[in-house]
Please model this.
Amino acid sequence: MKLALIIGMKTSVTMADVARTVGVSASTVSRALRNDSRISQAMRQEIRQVAESMHYRPNPLVSALMSNRNAHFDKAAMNTIALVTDYVGKESWKTKDVCRWEYEGMIERADALGYKVEEFALSDYSEDPERLSQVIRNRGIHGVLLGFSRDRRNKALIATGDFAIAGLSAYFRDALVDRSNFHGMYNVRLALDEIRKLGYRKTGLVVPEFNNRISGWQWSAGALDWQRHLPSADRCQPFIPAQDDSRATFAQWMQREQPDSLLVYKLPVQTWLASMGLTVPADIGVAYLYRTQTEMEAGAGIDGNLQLVGAASVDLVVASLNLNQVGLPRSPKEVLVKGVWRSGSTLRDKYKASSNLSARA
Model:
């Protein structure tokens, strides 16, 4: 009898149920239902509609408790995520397409969740991490995102004990924080699969040593592992130079390996190929691990979904804020965002070209 009664009971809908349905956190639902301006108007409307359709009714005791608790917070400070940068040199990170894409993703996601992102450049505080930490503390900001830095040795990190903190990509790579990143190994393997589908048999990876190291060596590891099951004649040793100016060694590598296609990041291979009398794609195919807008518009390759990488970094900070988790995690996690393949004019379908030649014959 008791079992029948339990089965027949209707469980009330909770805030967590609404959050799962919408795909946001419970705290976001709570803020939206209180018409908190930190949540975008569109998101508030969607959450209210879903809550109504699910017949959600807030618990009045919990609502009263949260109203009293929130009265003690500085909403302006709680509304801000500090983006800490350390991009020294003549060029600004804002001139780099990769950085711009990641930043756009940050801003869009922060706005959807009712936050804003404000940059705090270490150079504006005399390169003093403790001074910068104190400024962020004094502003009452609790969320910190480590982004856009150059690789420098003996660089101290800002104080972390008081902040909900996360990292973007490989910036501040020595910081043991939760971070979002592109899925380097997956992206390389996806590109190699797509290039081979077009009829290319021997693809060489061409990336700088510095950037391969930033990827956690995922690029070279992905390429070498992908080749394990290929016939020996189709395998190609990656070209991973220590310096950008590597035209001579590239020519030597081309002569030795004889690739029919290249998967490239950053290096000016089309210029190098032209100096060798080779044209793309007539003589050799080229695909990119996209670095610039120009490459994305003109060439085949991997779109790393870097806007989503930026968005995921904000998600990590907001999740820690909602859970009141501050300081460095015991076991840092990394959210890896998979890229997608984009076709382009720098590769040709060799199977289709062969079929056309046969038909003409």
